[in-house]
Amino acid sequence: MPTVPNDQSWMEQALRQAEHAGQRGEVPIGAVLVADNDIVAAAGNSPILDSDPTAHAEIKVIREAARKLGNYRLPGTTLYVTLEPCIMCMGAIIHSRIERLVFGASDPKTGGAVSQYQVGTDRKLNHFLDITGGVLDEQCSRLLVEFFRNRR
Q1: 7-55: pLDDT as tens digits
Q2: Does residue 12 have an active-site annotation?
Q3: Spatial contact of 86 and 116, defined as CB atoms under 8 Å apart
């Protein structure tokens, strides 16, 4: 699916979340969930800080949005994330009924949306979503490359 007019500005918000995560020593991945042209929730990765292997940015955003909206389903929302989600996150995206996923950098090793798996578009599940990849890909990729370069 092609990008829509606000995709870049929402991805910039996700990049800010990723930068904050990186400053805390976490892998710099950020996410924002948008409904009706408003951010419902925003978060960066924090599995190390939270001692929680499920504390990916996407999962944190879904949890926060569900609490705020009082519903475990999030129809009509768009999730922006700086890196293609893993299969755990794709499962949560499917179960929460997010309508659209927009990601920045592809993840050729563990990507669950298009790279290694096609969760959400393969029509094997009871929900599917629109997926757009590559939005601000260069900035999202650079943030990850620099983070890991600095750790070596």
Answers
A1: 999 999 999 999 999 999 999 999 999 999 999 999 999 999 999 999 9
A2: no
A3: no
Residue 65 CB partners (closer than 8 Å, separation 6+): 33, 35, 40, 41, 74, 77
**CB half-sphere exposure, 128, CA atoms < 13 A:** 7
Q: Which of 58, 64, 138, 146 is catalytic?
A: 58
CB 79 within 8 A of CB 58: yes
Distances (CA, A) of 24 to 27, 28, 104, 128: 9, 9, 21, 34
The DSSP symbol for 90 reads H
List, in sequence order, every beta strand (DSSP E) within the chain.
30-35, 38-44, 77-83, 100-105, 130-132
Q: How many helices (H) and strands (E) does the chain have?
A: 5, 5
Phi-psi region of 36 (alpha: psi -120 to 50; beta: other; left: phi over 0): left
Residue type, 97: R
Tens of pLDDT along 107-127?
Answer: 999 999 999 999 988 888 888
Query: For residue 98, with 0-12 CB atoms within 10 Å meaning exposed, 13-18 middle and 19 or more buried, which class applies?
Result: buried
